[in-house]
Structure formats: C-alpha cells, structure tokens
C-alpha cells in the first residue's frame, strides 16, 4: 500500500469520526437563557419538548445584558427574560443580531414593604425603591399614581424622568436600583416597586404581600423569547414556541404563579410594524 493511499484512508477515517461526533441539526440541544423565577415554566416546557424529541438546556441569568450578549455571541440559542420595551431599547449593535420569536407573559408589578402593612402607612419623606430601567421606571410611576401616592403630568406615556411628576404630597424620594439588586434594596427601603421575580427573591408572596398590584398591561410590558435573527424561522425554534404557547402551558402559568404572571401568546411578527 503506497503512502498516498495510506494518507487518503487516514483522512477519510478522520472525517468520518469527526462527523459522527455531531448530532443531526434537528436533534441538537437548544440552550435557553432564562430567569431563575421562570425555571418551573421552562422545566414544564422542556419535559413536553423532550417527549417530542426536542432537547432543551436551561441556563439561568440575573443580568439582562449578559443574556443578550451571550445570545448574540452564539453561547445561547434563545433567551426568555426581557420585556418588549427592553428589547426595543437594546443597543443597535446588539439588537440587529436578534429577533423576537414570540411572547410569553405579562408581569404583574406591585408595591411591597417590610416596614408598612398598608399604603396609607407610608410616611412623609419615605424612600421608595424603583427600577432603573426606563420602561420599568415609567411603569412604576404609573403604579404609584394608581396607589394615590403621587400625580403625574397629563400626557405621560410611560417614558421620562421624575420631571413628569406633577404632585408628590408625601415628598417621597425615589431610589433607582438595578434589577439585580432590587430585592436587596427592598429589604431596607420604606417600600419598593417590584416585579413578581424580584418580590419572590425579597421574601414576599407576589400576590398576598403586595400593597397594590398594577392594572397596567400595555404591550411594552409583555415578555418575549428572543433568538438570533437568522434563526427566527428555524423549524426547531418555531416548534419550541408552539410548545410554550399552548393551552396547557398557559394553565400551568396561571396555577403556578397565581395571577402574578399573565400568559400572553403572540408570534414574532407582532413587532415588525414598529418604528425604530
């Protein structure tokens, strides 16, 4: 056997061995970045997916920016944690690499306090912890107006700063905090505006312990599954979305989260008509 033939056989065996180490694309595990508070939902979906031959790997994140960078960079196949408004406000160099696959739920926002049992007990000059993310901050202002703690200027649409506060009769101080640290701040502030996941981490029952919960359920507050732009029409991703956006998943969310998460199921095209 000459040297050329030996080399050819070696190359053929090497190629075949490398190829056999990869699963067919349809069987490749989908890695999804999620919130820890959503884990029970995704475990429910993962079980259904496994029964249909679709394997999911769940990775928890507490930092939104890290999860989007991991997705854009190829370390994740999808993530499911951010609201429509947060997605729309992503830096252009990140956002252009991603696309919304579809929506999951809307989050109920509430005012919580370790110090006070009722809204009327919040004292003059109290410190209220609020989210620093723009859309969540605007929603917090709406909620405090619903609670009767302040009045907003006419025409407030949910974006803006404290300049949009018309009347603050209790002279409240708003302390902005990142989502990552919100639950810690909530333990020491007079009160805090928290999402369901933040309230849970701070030791509250999302529904029973809220002094008030928001009735505002605008599209901006709906959460979504994001994928890389080139994968939005991928058959496996569409199957994943269908498994999530099913009647039994909706029933699971309603039972498990007792109204603090509201299932909202829209396909990815719902954002295509929005202006940048």
TrEMBL record:
Asked if Lipoprotein is a keyword of the record, the answer is yes
Task: Report TM segments.
Answer: none
Q: Which organism is it from?
A: Bacillus amyloliquefaciens
Location of the protein in the cell: Membrane
Record's Pfam families?
A: Lipoprotein_9
This one is known as: MetQ/NlpA family ABC transporter substrate-binding protein
Top-level taxon of the source organism: Bacteria
Among InterPro entries, the record links this protein to:
Lipoprotein_NlpA
């Amino acid at each position: 056997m000459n040297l050329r033939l030996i080399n050819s056989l070696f190359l053929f065996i090497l190629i075949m061995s490398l190829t056999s180490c990869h699963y067919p694309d349809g069987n490749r595990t989908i890695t999804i970045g999620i919130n820890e508070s959503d884990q029970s939902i995704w475990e429910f979906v993962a079980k259904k997916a496994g029964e249909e031959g679709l394997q999911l790997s769940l990775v928890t994140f507490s930092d939104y920016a890290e999860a989007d960078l991991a997705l854009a960079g190829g370390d994740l196949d999808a993530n499911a944690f951010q609201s429509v408004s947060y997605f729309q406000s992503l830096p252009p160099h990140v956002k252009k690499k991603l696309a919304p696959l579809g929506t999951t739920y809307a989050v109920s926002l509430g005012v919580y306090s370790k110090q006070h049992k009722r809204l009327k007990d919040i004292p003059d000059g109290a410190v209220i912890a609020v989210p620093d993310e723009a859309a969540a901050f605007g929603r917090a202002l709406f909620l405090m107006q619903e609670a009767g703690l302040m009045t907003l200027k006419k025409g407030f649409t949910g974006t803006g700063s404290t300049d949009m506060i018309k009347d603050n009769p209790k002279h409240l101080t708003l302390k902005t905090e990142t989502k990552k640290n919100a639950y810690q701040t909530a333990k020491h502030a007079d009160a805090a505006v928290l999402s369901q996941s933040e309230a849970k981490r701070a030791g509250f029952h999302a529904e029973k312990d809220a002094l008030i919960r928001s009735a505002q359920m605008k599209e901006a507050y709906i959460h979504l599954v994001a994928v890389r732009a080139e994968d939005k029409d991928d058959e496996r991703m569409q199957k994943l979305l269908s498994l999530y956006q099913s009647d039994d998943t909706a029933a699971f969310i309603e039972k498990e989260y007792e109204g603090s998460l509201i299932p909202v199921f829209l396909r990815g095209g719902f954002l295509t008509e929005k202006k940048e």
